[in-house]
Known about the structure:
This protein is mainly alpha-helical. It is built from 4 helices and 2 strands, in the order ββαααα.
Amino acid sequence: MAGPLAVAGDVVVDALPYFDQGYDAPGVREAAAALVEEETRRYRPTKNYLSYLPTPDYSAFETEIMRNEFERLAARQPMELLSMKRYELPAPSSGQKNDITAWQESVNNSMAQLEHQAVRIENLELMSQHGSNAWKVYNEKQIQDLNWLRKNDQLAAGSKLREMESNWVALVSKNYEIERAIVQLEGEIKKMKQQQGDENKENIRQDF
């Protein structure tokens, strides 16, 4: 499992959570808790650690409708009920049964209501395609694709790291074998030189 690297006071995380193993090993959770505890000791906020910021203006984004609604809530007044009068289709009164103008106004009203309902249907269809739910689905798809790409990248990087680690182990082992062979050869050379020196001494004694 990879660990964090401290570079110029900043922490660069080099972990590969999709590849690393050993998160459930004994002591890992305790080590993480110790790191959090150390960070907590270094960060000692005051009673109001946002005191250096200016006083927030909570009314900066309020509209007239919002202000009126907040005032209504503060006064504990009931909400004004939605008027359905504009959606009614009244027929001409009994005294206007034979009035063509009254019937024409009633027909015009019904046509306007029909067109209004058609526009509402179109808006609902547009919302189903481009509304907040569609945007949420799109974001979820993007997040899923991003996580999948991150997983593939981490698995590929992990395989490369494992291959490089295996090569490193092989090279270290080979270097160790070479060093051992060198020590052995040096010992044999030293032994041969010693034997040759002993033979030279024996020859000198024989000459005398």
